[in-house]
């Protein structure tokens, strides 16, 4: 399975992400500005949320809105490590909001019963109890701005945000420095 995401800037150029490539740190662009008056939007996938230096670099790009994308882990069977659960994905996404004083949009992959065979998880501990998806939006102070979603349904979530909350959060603690 491969996970990738692209953010297209107003001029129409995609920020490319090279996996396992050798390059200087300043070439890693995980966030872009959405225009002269737009917010700085960034994204990380899956295990990238477990790398403190990558998160620090991402936050140092002045990210205001972060997209935390996760593969399916879901509500899995007993005996599977808890780190591979949507609960942990939610926890890490909320921590990203608090650490970076940024808005975080968190989403996971949904696997329906009819797709378990295609994914080769039918009858295994990895088969979801109920779709296994999760989605949320968190404020820079870690407040969940959306209601919990049904793990068995595709859902589009919305929240009104005020980008001034990013600056207010950074007054309390900015990991990049005041």
UniProtKB/TrEMBL annotation:
<keyword id="KW-0378">Hydrolase</keyword>
<dbReference type="InterPro" id="IPR044149">
    <property type="entry name" value="Nitrilases_CHs"/>
</dbReference>
<dbReference type="InterPro" id="IPR036526">
    <property type="entry name" value="C-N_Hydrolase_sf"/>
</dbReference>
<dbReference type="InterPro" id="IPR003010">
    <property type="entry name" value="C-N_Hydrolase"/>
</dbReference>
<comment type="similarity">
    <text>Belongs to the carbon-nitrogen hydrolase superfamily. Nitrilase family.</text>
</comment>
<dbReference type="GO" id="GO:0000257">
    <property type="term" value="F:nitrilase activity"/>
</dbReference>
<dbReference type="Pfam" id="PF00795">
    <property type="entry name" value="CN_hydrolase"/>
</dbReference>
<feature type="domain" description="CN hydrolase">
    <location>
        <begin position="1"/>
        <end position="163"/>
    </location>
</feature>
<dbReference type="InterPro" id="IPR000132">
    <property type="entry name" value="Nitrilase/CN_hydratase_CS"/>
</dbReference>
<protein>
    <recommendedName>
        <fullName>CN hydrolase domain-containing protein</fullName>
    </recommendedName>
</protein>
<dbReference type="GO" id="GO:0016836">
    <property type="term" value="F:hydro-lyase activity"/>
</dbReference>
């Amino acid at each position: 399975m491969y996970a990738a995401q692209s953010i297209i800037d107003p001029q129409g150029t995609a920020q490319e992400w090279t996996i396992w490539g050798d390059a200087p740190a300043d070439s890693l662009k995980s966030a872009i500005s959405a225009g002269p008056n737009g917010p700085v939007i960034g994204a990380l996938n899956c295990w990238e949320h477990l790398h403190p230096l990558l998160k620090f670099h991402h936050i140092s790009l002045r990210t205001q809105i972060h997209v935390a994308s996760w593969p399916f882990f879901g509500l899995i069977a007993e005996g599977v490590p808890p780190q591979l659960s949507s609960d942990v994905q939610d926890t890490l996404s909320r921590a990203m909001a608090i650490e970076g004083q940024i808005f975080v949009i968190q989403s996971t992959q949904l696997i329906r019963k009819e797709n378990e065979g295609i994914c080769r998880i039918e009858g295994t501990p990895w088969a979801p109890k109920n779709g296994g998806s999760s989605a949320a939006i968190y404020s820079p102070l870690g407040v969940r701005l959306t209601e919990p979603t049904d793990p068995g349904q595709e859902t589009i979530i919305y929240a009104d945000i005020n980008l001034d909350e990013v600056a207010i959060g950074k007054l309390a603690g900015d990991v990049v420095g005041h």
